Amino acid sequence: MNRFAYWLVVLAFVFDKIIQSTNYSPKWVNSYLDDFLLIPIFLGSALIVQQNIVFDQFSFKKGQIFAAWLVFSILFEFIFPKITRAYVADVWDILAYGLGAIYFKVFLNYPAKKASS
Description:
Layout: H1 3-22, H2 27-54, H3 62-83, H4 91-108
């Protein structure tokens, strides 16, 4: 895993929350940045746990990444908006989850580097 790429999304999330608290963030940041960052942070954290505790050469299969995208899309865009007003269905969020999944696949999802002996 590229730890720099992982910490980049984590820091982007923290920075986003700070900016949102000032009420000066652009509308697209408020609407889509969290959605983009969700899968890289969620699967990236799971990847770190897997590689450090279970198997250092672990990486997610394409189908598992797709499943994460599908589950988050269904939960946050179809189920939760029907249950509570805290969530609003937005088809563009589904695209943001997908772009986050692509970021995860390209920049984060590969086995840990082995130390040279």
